[in-house]
Write the structure tokens for this entry.
Amino acid sequence: MTRLFNDPADFADEAADGFVVANQRWVRRVHGGVARATSSPDGTVAVVIGGGSGHYPAFGGLVGPGLAAGAAMGNLFASPSAQQVAGVARAAEHGGGVLFSYGNYAGDVLNFDAAARTLEASGIPVRTVVVTDDVVSAPAELASERRGIAGDLCVFKVAGAAAEEGRTLDEVTAVASRANDRTRSFGVAFSGCSLPGADEPLFEVPEGRMAIGMGIHGERGIDETDVPTADGLAALLVERLLEELPDGVTADGARVVPILNGLGSVKYEELFVVYRSVQRLLDDAGVVTVEPEVGELVTSFDMAGVSLTLFWLDDELERLWAAPADTPAFRKGGAVAAERLPESELEADDGIVVGTGSAESQAVAVRLAGALAAVRRVLDEHVDELGELDAVAGDGDHGIGMQRGAHAADAAAQEALGRDVGAGGLLAIAADAWSDKAGGTSGAVWGAALEALGRGIGDDSRPSAAEVQSAVHAAAEAVLAFGAVPGDKTMVDALVPFDDAFAAAVERGASVPDAWRSAVTAAHEAADATADLVPRKGRAKTHAEQAVGTKDPGAVSFALIVETVTPVIEEGARS
């Protein structure tokens, strides 16, 4: 368990602050994470990596000359928000464009893609290489759907080395993509991990048993077996990875970088005992090992687990892997000469700017701020329940993420009231805060929904029933744009029935409160019905069968929220 913390909600930020002051030679704090504290030549491609906190040395520990230019660092096991990613990219960019690279998780994809659109709109070219090395998370024919685990390092390292050579953005992207195509990983765990302040681990493994194929966010394994000897574990790892070689690779005579990665609690000495057998088995297969790595590279808090990565080289990839790198947690070759940046170049945080609302709209904004405060309170009450639902087939962080987002949105809305904002402006500010602090998929979708709702309501007048209905539909469309559809077992399964019921009631001439109440009933019924669905999106998809019989936490939290704001809507109709 994690023992040393203050307020668990502040853990990720405080850890990042401590990491930066301990490593000022390499990194500086910027909005959303860290960037290099050293300069790069103009025109250099900025390799920006990232993901949730809790995986050190990924991701901040890999920032420095020869590797990443910046790392977006989300909350614990939650993706960084689009604002965080864009903030890091702007701080790290040197005129050569930005390459985003990160593990293939739904929240990361949503938020990095949103950041890419923002940066492209401001004239900064962006490319993306998503890491998909985890062989157990999807079959080979669906390799693009696999998770990214310790193979992140291989992709990040060659991309950083190519950027350091002055290669173009497209060239750096191509070599990173090839590295991903030639990287395979497989992991096991002997116990789950516990987040700061949590009483229980995200999953448990019976004494004397080992989970096979778990994820790095507390996702359960796909199978379980007795704990083998160190030699037995090495055989399991190597044999599974040799079953699936990249196209054009034959094991006998091939060159490979083996990475034996500890996930948090396995001691280095234990890793070395396992690696001696890994090396022998690779030798027996005729594989030529090149500059192996043994140690903690992508962790999962206190998880007792091990993963093996095999990075199959060609001449160019081998040269880039061996190129010098100098970061807080990963160093290779000779020192990379670099000058420290002046303190004046630290990135300033930019808040969202909105105009002044009309008197009528300001009155609506006050009621909306009250609604957000009510949402914060109800999520505080249900945070454990939502986390337990998410832990069945996901990573258990839905309740925590929703709580963080609601707290941030409430605080931002209360502060905004003193700036004479209208209803639309207040929701835009709340949306930005929710997305920024919650991270993950829920942060992205709730940020988009609130922003679209605010855009529809506007700042000029008190909205009519038809205008409220149009704004609600715009919020639903903003969420649907992320790709989920009814039946995927997501928030959408409650959102679409709510939107349909609300629209139908308004069209029949119902008042906003009456239409809202009927829509809330539809949302609750639909959320309950998700228990029968098989998940087809997000992390839960990997463990789909385990989720049958359990309601989707995103649908449940949506129904809970729309029910909670009902009294505020009724009060508004009476005023």
User: Anything to note?
Assistant: Confidence is low (pLDDT under 50) at residues 346-350. The longest helix spans residues 359-391. Residues 280 and 515 are 69 Å apart (CA to CA).
